[in-house]
Design goal:
Length: 247
């Protein structure tokens, strides 16, 4: 039987958070991610992982306080469900999602929702997996879809109007990011150094509050790339990927 751990104030400092596990260059990002989780525990944030050394976890919280540009009431929002490597194909993702669904029902929530996409994109869930559990598409922006599993007849969540813009006024390469993901801090530094060396105009906008997250001008899970005012992707870039994208 699989053993799971929910992070809380008593164990978060001693437990790993799965992402960027064992990679020293991402330690600053891990520290900031843990700090972010600590600040969100009061909101009902849940980070549940397999008690093993690997990238196996689910992370969710009430939509009202979730750092995503989605409006809704009394729904849980799943930030991420990740089962990697040799742990795939063992029913762990199923157990994690079933826990979240049961937890939402126990809390008398109206449902649970998450972000997917028509075409496979990094750090976003698999649509077919959620369909198997009864999730249905309730809103769409470009290739991105919001899926929800409803427990009652209350209104389902919707993308905020700001997120539908998918464009900004700034014409230089601009990246929105937050500490929801431990990978971003290293890449922000790497890209900053690279852009400075190559004399490339590059702007970062950090999402560091609920208000900023809810008012983001695009789909945002933790990173969003804009160029010439248009949304390009949610791919977290390193220097090589950035250079190829500009070319």
């Amino acid at each position: 039987m699989n053993e799971y751990i929910n992070l809380d104030s008593s164990n978060i400092d001693s437990e790993h958070i799965c992402c960027a596990i064992g990679d020293p260059k991402h330690q600053d990002g891990v520290d900031k991610k843990k700090k972010w989780i600590k600040s969100k525990l009061k909101d009902g944030h849940v980070f549940r992982k397999l008690n093993a050394r690997g990238k196996i976890f689910i992370e969710y919280e009430p939509i009202e306080t979730a750092w995503v540009p989605i409006d809704g009431k009394n729904y849980e929002y799943i930030y991420c469900l990740w089962v990697a490597g040799s742990f795939k194909g063992k029913g762990i993702a199923k157990e994690l999602l079933e826990y979240a669904i049961h937890d939402a029902k126990e809390k008398k929530m109206s449902g649970i929702c998450t972000l997917v996409s028509l075409k496979k994109k990094p750090f976003i869930g698999e649509k077919k997996f959620f369909e198997h559990f009864g999730f249905q598409v309730v809103d769409t922006i470009q290739d991105y879809e919001l899926m929800a599993l409803s427990f009652d007849q209350n209104e389902t969540p919707r993308f905020c109007d700001h997120a539908r813009k998918m464009e900004i006024e700034d014409q230089d390469f601009t990246i929105y990011y937050s500490n929801e993901c431990p990978y971003v801090e290293y890449e922000v530094k790497e890209l900053t150094d690279y852009a400075k060396e190559k004399n490339i105009p590059l702007h970062f906008i950090k999402i560091d509050s609920l208000e900023k997250a809810k008012n983001a001008p695009c789909i945002l899970n933790n990173w969003a790339n804009f160029y010439k005012g248009k949304f390009i992707s949610n791919t977290i870039l390193n220097a090589n990927a950035f250079e190829k994208l500009l070319k």
